[in-house]
Amino acid sequence: MAFGIKKEELDSWKMKVARGEIAFLTHYWQDPRFSEAKTVTKVGCSSIEVLAEWGAKYGLKKEWIHQRQDYPHFDLLGDFQRRILEAEGLHEHLSRFSIRKDDR
Predict the structure, then answer these.
(1) Which has the closest alpha carbon to 25: 38, 6, 53?
(2) pTM for this predicted structure
(3) Buried b (16+ CB within 10 A) or exposed e, 42-54
(4) Helix/strand/coil for 64
(5) Degrees (nearest 5) of the Cα angle 49, 90, 11?
(6) Per-residue confidence of the chain (104 residues) as pLDDT tens digits?
(7) Which residue blocks in the chain are alpha helix, DSSP H?
(8) What residue segments make up the domains of the chain, in order of their start?
């Protein structure tokens, strides 16, 4: 279950993904399979090849791409999430959702 984002943020992410841009969407999240995770960042792009190439520079595997509907994306959790948001300069995501080094 996702929460903590506005409809406009989701719509903006979808538009960027559809245009073939690498787009980031971070939100609060609950899933019993990943009870330690409080947030997730979805990194999407309509081009699987562009997304896979982007992910490879962070050690993400192409087979980890969720190919659902029109919005292929990686789900970033935990240390991957924090490290990639830092590397991409997305400090607003880190502060808004209180993602810190000691978070799981």
Answers:
(1) 6
(2) 0.89
(3) bbbbbeeeebbeb
(4) helix
(5) 65
(6) 567 889 999 999 999 999 999 999 999 887 888 888 899 999 999 999 999 999 999 999 999 999 977 899 999 999 999 999 999 999 999 999 999 765 44
(7) 7-18, 48-56, 78-87, 91-96
(8) 2-96
